[in-house]
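R.M. (postdoc): so does anyone remember the format we settled on? I'll just put the structure tokens first.
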């Protein structure tokens, strides 16, 4: 059995809103929306990978919160795991630096206004439940 490679996704939350990132590449994913993140490098913790990926992709400084329960298969051997994250005080606003051409902060009412990548849908559903909590 091949070893699974973890891809971390960030449920980047700010003031009750979730950040969605529109893919610009590869062509088969372009135009669909996802939770930003990326692959965990060898020797790296998922939390450290998330902070690094958000810095590289969005130019932001963040801290990870709690893990969103569950994991979702991507194309083999990748598996998606999601953590909540928050911008650190003084962090610049997110910008689409790499692999994305648009970012949107979505309120609970707007969460399904974008076409999420299939593998991100179950994670977004779990996050939706959290956003509904008082």
């Amino acid at each position: 059995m091949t070893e699974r490679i973890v891809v971390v996704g960030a449920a980047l939350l700010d003031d009750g809103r979730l950040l969605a990132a529109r893919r610009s590449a590869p062509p088969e994913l372009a135009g669909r929306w996802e939770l930003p993140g990326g692959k965990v490098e060898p020797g790296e913790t998922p939390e450290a990978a998330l902070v690094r990926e958000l810095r590289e992709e969005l130019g932001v400084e963040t801290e990870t919160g709690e893990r969103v329960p569950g994991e979702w298969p991507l194309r083999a051997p990748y598996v998606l795991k999601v953590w909540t994250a928050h911008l650190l005080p003084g962090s610049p606003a997110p910008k689409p630096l790499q692999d994305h051409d648009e970012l949107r902060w979505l309120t609970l009412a707007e969460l399904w206004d974008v076409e999420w990548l299939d593998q991100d849908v179950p994670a977004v559903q779990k996050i939706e439940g959290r956003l509904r909590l008082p």
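R.M.: ...and that's the designed sequence above, right after the tokens. Also worth knowing: The chain has a mean pLDDT of 93. DSSP finds two helices and seven strands in the chain.
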